[in-house]
Request: fold
Amino acid sequence: MTAKQSETLLSCILENEGSYTDSVTLDALITKIKQKREISDGEVTDLIIHIVNDKKEWHVPELINTIKSLLNINWVKIYEKLDSPNLIIDIRSFNKILKIWSYISDNQSLPYHTFFTQWENKEAQEQFLIFYIENRENIIDIRNNIYLKPIIPLSDLEFEEEIFTSSSSVSQHSSEKRTVVQCDLIQTHFNCIELFECISKKSKKLSDLLIRKIIFISPEWGFFGLSTIFPTHRTIFEELFLSNLKREKFSILGFLDKRDPAFLIQCLSDARDNGFSLNKLLDITLELKLLPSILEYLHPPFFCFEILILSSKRDHLNLNIWISNTFKNKGDAFVQGMIAYITEKTKQSTNNGEHISNEPFSMYISNQT
Reply:
C-alpha cells in the first residue's frame, strides 16, 4: 500500500506534537502506521531532512532509538538519499547531520562518501564541502572510516624514535624505542581520496576556492590531496611542490615517494625545467634515498641521466658498472634512451656555444656497435 502524502511518517509525527518529545507516543504512532503498511526508507529520509532543516529542537536520541527498535533500517542508505532538493545546508544543519549519526551508531563510521559523490542538489553539497573543510572540531574523525580511502595509510604516519634514558643513582644508560605519531598530520579530515576527487569535478571557480581553503588550514594535506588528482590544479600543486623543495621538507616529499616514486621523479624533473638547481635536486634525491628508483624507472629519461651523471661525479654511483648492468637487463631500449639523451645534450650545448663530453655514454655505445 502506498502512503498518501498526508499519511507519511513525517506528516503523522507533525500532526501529533507529543511525538516530538515523548518516546511512548512516538512508539505508538509508528506501531499504528506499521499495522497498516510498511514504512519506506524514503519516509525516514524525509523525516531526517525535516529535522535537519527545522529550527525547532527535536528530541533526536529518543526518536532515533524508537525508530531503530521498531524498523529495520539501513541507515547508510538513508544518508545516501540526503541528496534531495529539500535539503538546506548551513552550519546548524551541517552539525545536525553529524550529530544525528552519532545517535544512529556509536561504532559505525559516518558515511561521508555519500557527500563526495555527484549530487543533484549542488548548492547543498557545495555548502557541505565548505563546512566540512572549515571544521576544526573533533566531531569529524575519519582515521578508521571504512567508506573512505586514505591518501596516506595510518601506519605511514608513524615512525619509531629511540629514547635515551639515564639514572643519576646508577651510572648506566639505556635506550628504548617508542612509536611516535605525527599528530599534526594524523588528526585530520583531509586524508581521504574521495574528498579531492569530488572537488576536482566541481567548477574551476568552486574547486579553486575549496583547494585554497584546505591549503590555508593545512598546506601539507593540500599538497598530498592535489597529488592524487594531478594534473588537475597543476599550477597550485607545482607552487606547493617548489615550496617544499626550497624549504627542504623531506618528510613531506618522503610521503609522496612512498605513494608514487615515479610521480615524484617526474615532479623533480619539472622543477629542473623551472630552473631549480640540478645539484640541489641531487642533494634532495640522496636525502630521500630516491636514487634506486631513478635507476629503475629512468623516466623522464633526460632528467634521470642528468642526475645519474652528476651522482657519478660525486662518487655516489659507478656509472660504467651501472651502464653495463642496465644494458644487459634492458638491451636496445636502454641504448636508445642514452642516444636520445646524448643527442639532446649535444643540441643544448651547441645552442649555448659549449663543448661537452658525453663519456662514458659515447664510449660505451661505440663499443656495443
User: Anything to note?
Assistant: The CA atoms of residues 96 and 298 lie 52 Å apart.
